[in-house]
Write the structure tokens for this entry.
Amino acid sequence: MMQSVIFTPPVVSSFVRESLALLYFKQVVDRFGMFFLHNLDLSRSNCLPEVLDRDDADILKTLGARVRRKKKIALPSLEVDPDEFPIGRTPTWREVEKCIKERPWALMRAWVWSPHWENDIGESAAKLFQLFSTHIWASLNDNWRAVHSLSISPVSVREAVECWTLKEVYLNFKTITFVPCNAGLQGRISGRTVKSFADRFTLYFPPSTETLSGVWKIFGEEPGYIAEYRKIVDSLMEEEKEALDSSLRVLLAQCQCLPISERGLGKRSAVWNVRGDVVQVLTNPLFYKLETIGGGGWKPAKTRRAPTHQPPKKLQIALLEHSGVTSQAAKRAVNWSRSVNRRRSTKSRNRRIPPSQKPKQKPVKEIDVTGDDDSLEEEGEEGTDNGSETDEDEEESGLSTDTDDD
């Protein structure tokens, strides 16, 4: 009977639950049916090392003790390190665009190779990324390459990633402009959100070669890197394929720069993007020295200007006042006039408009074309007689249409 009695469970404070969790109360009770305190030592200043030595202000307040809280002292604002945040912690998107275009090395952290990457990435992923870097650079026309630049053919995965660093990309072009990427950045960003470097894996390593066109179609044919990727994937199990794709995503995410590539139809299918006389290269936002994109520099909403003329009601009252009518009488007269017009307009709006009658259509005479030839001849004769009678009538009335006399 006692188990079926409804009762209100006791409310346990949060600090009690935290202390019991530190002592593994539930686990011990569930296993042994009782609770033990093996580390309890009343001779020590802290009887239980696992729990707090002293009760904080919130616990004392719960127990009813009066506690004087210390006033928080405002710490002085720390100066921003110019090397850590060259344009501030929360620059605007326009400031990011300007810095990336004029001096990208100031905003982007230096590229550093981690030795464990080469151990974690498999041999197939390393080979494919070397082919990817070699073939993408080979597709660039020599007219855009710097005079002293050499052909890029990395022999290791480190060299394959290093050829996409800010320094190497800058040295291999005659004219180049760097473009910022807003993928993964927080704050007020203008424009559409683009894919991150890791998410560009499906762009450079498509799941099928059927829809490829232009330069991408050549990559999809042997000995292109896409054809090699498809050849390796077809021989792998599903888990091995996922591990290979994950390694390639990691390598793409470690690149500081990548070309602004598009894989579509016609002119939209291109590996390198040129605007004007310069090649555009996308920068990786993971290397930006900033915390978030700030909202400074945004123009506030424009306030609506005042109307040029007075409102009609106010103008009518002012005209009556200028004619010698008191202000109260003018307001009463204008309100009465507007109420009368409102009632009239309401009555006219509610007046029923009768429906418009449709014009009656004249009946069309039907001619029986299935009759005998004799009946048709009779009708022809009657028509001839009628025609002669009409001519006679016209001659009698002098309305003949013959104009020979004229």
Remarks:
- The chain is about 40% helix and 5% strand.
- Confidence is low (pLDDT under 50) at residues 72-80, 297-301, 369-373, 375-406.
- The longest strand covers residues 278-283.
- Strands lie at 176-179, 257-259, 273-275, 278-283.
